[in-house]
Amino acid sequence: MDLIDDPMEGQNSPEFSVTELSGAIKRVIEGEFSHVRIKGEVGRVSRPRSGHIYLDLKDDKSVISGVIWKGVSARLETQPEEGMEVVATGRITTFGGQSKYQIVIEDIKPAGMGALMALLEKRKKMLAAEGLFDASRKQTLPYLPEVIGVVTSPSGAVIRDILHRLRDRFPRKVLIWPVAVQGAKCAPEVARAIEGFNAMTPGGALPRPDLLIVARGGGSVEDLWGFNEEVVARAAAASQIPLISAVGHETDTTLIDFVSDMRAPTPTAAAELAVPVRHELAAWLENQSARMRQLLSNGLTARGQRLRDVSRALPRADTLLDAPRQRMDRAGEQLGPALIAGVQRRRVRLADVSGSLRPATLRQRIANDRTRLNGLAARLGPALSRGIASKRDRYESRAKGFRPAALQRDRDAKAESFQRLVTRLSGAAQRQMMDWQKRLAAMERLRETLSYKSTLARGYAVVRGDGAVVTGTKAAKKAAVLEIEFADGRMVVGGKAPTKKAAPPAKDQGSLF
């Protein structure tokens, strides 16, 4: 039995109550389908006295339950009727009391199929048939991209929202490819931007992005039509760089949303999907480190206690020799009589055997053995001669096949092979050292990037007043002395430098772009 037993299989499997499992399913469904639009035929319609409307939306294969709350139904322009083909907008949720899911409808309109929608449906079917919408071809987004490429208009509010969100969560390098986000130039420019980012050389003078964001604000179907063009959808599908589409609002859907690796409901949400929150990540790492230390301490304590418990069950060292020592004493007492009895038995047996011995018998046996020995001696000489001759012939035949030149060539070949192996090992060692040096240099660049000193080198400054960082005009006016820190040093405005030790540098309040 081991001193430290491993936990049995299945001991860490959690047990959920029905309510806990139902709540977990509700959170998953509402998180994945927060806001959707559904087109279908209205089936059963029920209007109880409460004023709510309960209905079914169906097509030729499936049915989904829907509910319109009293406040929403009162302001609907079109009331749903059985057999009507509609487009319903709402959010998917679950009803744990009956283990069913449903859509809470916020708007419902008749489904009028115009020329643009007909063309859009045709393109969707064609691209879906080619497999461009398949989940198996979608790439996983990098957890923390070094460079993010953004395809959008440089003058709109979208790029400012994205940059602001990235700066708040985890500042990253951003490359902006300016394009038109509506009109005739939209589709070709967006397609060229996606292809251009993919054509960049990794590690070049202009770094290739690790993640792409195609973003635009909300608008009508005509405003967003550029992102429904086939050239944009195919360029997004062919992108080797993971791509997030953030076109329009939550209810707006374009073809690029289906072929992209991830769809974001808004441009701000795309920035949130692109990078984690730095402070939360640092807190999580610190928490995991504390948990690991606590677990190690608890494990060592438990194992020490287990060892002490097991040691108490073991006998003392001095008691282990008591029984063997007693057996040895008993054996020593019995040894003398046993030896005497053994000698006596052997003396009797010797007397019995010696009584049958006769000198004539011994002389006859010796004579027979001498005759046999003489016969063997006569045969020994010729046998030795034949053996020596046979071994001499075999040695001479082997000596004829011995060639020193062949041995020399074999030695030279093995020496050359050994030299090649030494050369390969030396080259591998050099490459390993270079790889380690590159990794060390990359970590040093990352350290410099995360330091606020690198931000100062790009033209920013840190303002301190009365020993604290100043983040606004009110605090600056109240401070008696202002100290401004640049990349190459510090200067004092309004008086002498304070003698009090400056507070640690705060997070950069300026823009990173």
From TrEMBL:
<dbReference type="Pfam" id="PF13742">
    <property type="entry name" value="tRNA_anti_2"/>
</dbReference>
<keyword id="KW-0963">Cytoplasm</keyword>
<comment type="similarity">
    <text>Belongs to the XseA family.</text>
</comment>
<keyword id="KW-0540">Nuclease</keyword>
<comment type="function">
    <text>Bidirectionally degrades single-stranded DNA into large acid-insoluble oligonucleotides, which are then degraded further into small acid-soluble oligonucleotides.</text>
</comment>
<comment type="subunit">
    <text>Heterooligomer composed of large and small subunits.</text>
</comment>
<dbReference type="InterPro" id="IPR020579">
    <property type="entry name" value="Exonuc_VII_lsu_C"/>
</dbReference>
<dbReference type="GO" id="GO:0006308">
    <property type="term" value="P:DNA catabolic process"/>
</dbReference>
<dbReference type="GO" id="GO:0008855">
    <property type="term" value="F:exodeoxyribonuclease VII activity"/>
</dbReference>
<dbReference type="GO" id="GO:0005737">
    <property type="term" value="C:cytoplasm"/>
</dbReference>
<dbReference type="Pfam" id="PF02601">
    <property type="entry name" value="Exonuc_VII_L"/>
</dbReference>
<protein>
    <recommendedName>
        <fullName>Exodeoxyribonuclease 7 large subunit</fullName>
        <ecNumber>3.1.11.6</ecNumber>
    </recommendedName>
</protein>
<dbReference type="GO" id="GO:0009318">
    <property type="term" value="C:exodeoxyribonuclease VII complex"/>
</dbReference>
<dbReference type="GO" id="GO:0003676">
    <property type="term" value="F:nucleic acid binding"/>
</dbReference>
<keyword id="KW-0269">Exonuclease</keyword>
<dbReference type="InterPro" id="IPR003753">
    <property type="entry name" value="Exonuc_VII_L"/>
</dbReference>
<keyword id="KW-0378">Hydrolase</keyword>
<feature type="domain" description="Exonuclease VII large subunit C-terminal">
    <location>
        <begin position="132"/>
        <end position="400"/>
    </location>
</feature>
<dbReference type="InterPro" id="IPR025824">
    <property type="entry name" value="OB-fold_nuc-bd_dom"/>
</dbReference>
<feature type="domain" description="OB-fold nucleic acid binding">
    <location>
        <begin position="16"/>
        <end position="108"/>
    </location>
</feature>
